[in-house]
Design a protein that fits this description.
about 100 residues; mainly alpha; elongated
Length: about 100
């Protein structure tokens, strides 16, 4: 099939006003961010319960990460969630280790 209308490269549909997909409504994107942020804040006061909250937020963020394509608008919040999970785990482990030292 050699239909020129089916060719998508360089057809300038987005320039003519074609709608862009809205990835800001992806399930798990916003709750994952808020839960990972809460996990990071809780890591300052309560290290072990913060890990539970951070892992739940990680599950939501991973669900959204699988749906949103690469370089799509809205993926940055999910990546920030991953960074916050890493920081909260590192902070919780550091606080736990420091509390065990004499």
């Amino acid at each position: 099939m050699n239909d020129p209308r089916a060719k998508m490269d360089g057809n300038n549909l987005l320039g003519m006003g074609a709608p862009r997909p809205d990835w800001s409504k992806t399930p798990g994107r916003v709750p994952g961010f808020w839960l990972t942020l809460a996990g990071f804040i809780l890591a300052i006061v309560f290290p072990l319960p913060s890990l539970i909250v951070a892992v739940i937020g990680l599950a939501y963020a991973t669900q959204a990460f699988r749906v949103i394509p690469a370089k799509a608008r809205g993926r940055g919040l999910v990546i920030v969630s991953f960074v916050l999970v890493g920081l909260s785990v590192a902070l919780a482990l550091t606080r736990t280790i420091l509390s065990l030292l004499p």
